[in-house]
Specification:
This protein is mostly beta strands and 441 residues long. The chain has a domain of 177 residues. Helix content is 0%, strand content 46%. It contains no helices and 47 strands. The protein has an 18-stranded mixed beta sheet, with no helix packed on it. The protein starts with 21 loop residues before the first strand and ends with a strand.
Amino acid sequence: MNTSLRLRPVLEELEKRDCPALTLSVVSGTLLIQGTPTGPLAITEPAPGKIQVTDNSRNLGTFSVNENLIVNLASYPSTVGINLNGNRFGGNILMNLGLGGPPGGDTVSIAGGSLGGSLTILNGSGAENLFLGATTGGVSSPLSVGGPVSVTGRASGGTTTGGKTLDLFSGSTLAGNLSTALIDSLTLNGNVAGNLSVTDPGSYHALDVVVNGTVGKNANVTDSNLDDEFILASPSGQIGGNLSVNLGTSTGPTGDVIDLQTGTIVNGITTLTSAGGPVGGLFTVDGTINGNLTVNMGISGPAPLQDNFFTFAGTVFGNMQVTAGNGDNDLTNFTGTVFGNLSISMGNGNDSITVTNSPFGTFSLNAGNGSDSITLGTPAAASGNWTINFNFGTGSNTLTLGDGTSASTGNLFGYLNSQANPLANTFNQGGWSNYLYYSHF
């Protein structure tokens, strides 16, 4: 009889190979956090130089850190928060958000104390909400940063919804420069003592910048396309140096918007630029410019589409220059004060311009071709002395002084010229005195 050996199956336990979601290590006083958290990631400083890390409510330990904090994430499923708990962290903080969080975005915050070094935030999904000076729940907890702050996002995947936001909350202060790239919405309610640099080229989202705090030095804002918006907001918006805003080409349906609101101040040279687009744009200067002001409005769409609209009720202590390309432009709400020279240059189109107050220097106008309507002074009132250098193109043009009646008075000096047949033009002089050196209108 043949017998065979039968083997009984046995289940043996293998060597444990648990892979933690995060790895933490301290090297030369620097804490490095790497990987992907399993839930909300909370990094706190319970005491100066002590960093506690919690992942999804699981305590991963408390570490002595006397140099830097590096958070290098592959991705994250929920919020990521750093709270200094009123303490000072003397080193630098680097956060690499990897591929980012859930599709709808989530909050990444740094709050509640003082950072002695620099702050750098990189990558993400392109849909994060970044809070400086507030908890992940949006509760204000002021932050001060002694070094420069740099935030570089990621162009999100071909959709115009969502976008990456950065908020500097009220009471928070950045002692150095703030630079952002691929951040679609920036709100500054806190203060930046250094320079502000904002660029958003190649994003699928319009750029929206609101400054309701103070930028101590220069501010430079640049984008390349879509309907963008820059607001220097009442009551606290202030730029200590020069301001340059270039929003590139707009696409519709609203056009670019640049708004320097009442009570705001720019202490240096101000340059506001849009390349225009099919629906024009909206430009408002109601604040105070202590240097020169240049406004470049670009092209605007033909009627019945929206024109370029420019409203000026502020004060410019230097020279002011306004330029627009072809299209119909509306400058009929021009009631501010210019202490230097005023220069307005329009492209071809039917432009409407009403300037209520005489500039302290010379008012130069190049109106371009088209049927343009220009009004100077205050209706039915004395409007003072005006020194002009006006050049009109071809078309049926109208120049009105005051409201064109005898109740409107003023003195007109300078030069008035038109390429059109004078019979095609209308000059409503009213009660003004004409001291023009040369007139062909």
